[in-house]
Design a protein that fits this description.
The chain has one domain. The protein has 299 residues and is mainly alpha-helical.
Length: 299
Amino acid sequence: MDFSFHSLAIRLRPWGIVLGGFLLIFGFVLLMARLIHDPLDRVILLACNPDHYVPVIDELMILITDFSVFVFSVLFISWEVAYLICRGRPHRRWWVSRALLVLGVLSGLYYATGVFRAQYEYTIIFLPLGMIFLAGYCYLGWTFAHWDEKALRRGSLVFRLTLLSVFLTNAIGEDSIKKIVGRPRPLAGLNEDWNAPIRRIPDEIVRGGYSYVSGHASSLFALTTPMALATSNPWIRGAIFTWAAVHAYTRVYTAAHYPYCALMGSVLGFAIGALVFAAFRDRRAAPDNGAQNRSGGAP
């Protein structure tokens, strides 16, 4: 009986850590809303928001701000589905890796043709979007050809931790904080007395909803932090966090959020992602990006 109780306590301990940590993070981010400084935020926002069209940079900002969360979500979900198909069946990995390559080609072509189909001002962004999907699916296929079963299981665990991180961050944390604080966005009608100098960038003019905290910034940090912490490759980790940080900046560049709201959204997503990862650290280990599949990977 004592052994069963002890075993149950060990199993519940990570969940208790996550719950307690989440409440502390939620309370901290909510408390930090008291430090909102409208005049300073407006100055920084206007400095980050260009007063004229900037070739390439404008398109890049729209690509990153509109599609980062979508790309990471689709690719990670595709990887998990592929893992479930071949879990415990090494002979399926070769076929799964080839199927992912084919999916990469098809999705790359589909999104690239958005140049002709999409209702966007900057339709050129769909060309690099197609290439990102192609490269992403190629990498997913590579993992099934080169990672061993242990590394694949660890990757699946990171996926589940990511789901928990995103759920706590956005379904509970970010949405609740926005409703409690109720800070209007920079382009909201309530800010018409000062927001005239803001340049409205095509494809990302957001007036409705609330600014504190940024849902885009919190979402991507919550989504990428577990996978960034899981990798043992510092270059990959740095690239992931750099992407997430630039994504948060795009929310200011496009005047969708105040700088402070983007910053605190990033803090919220990163903190919860790191909390979830740390709470379950005894059950995880980083997939070795150089791991070779000793069972062959290909027939």
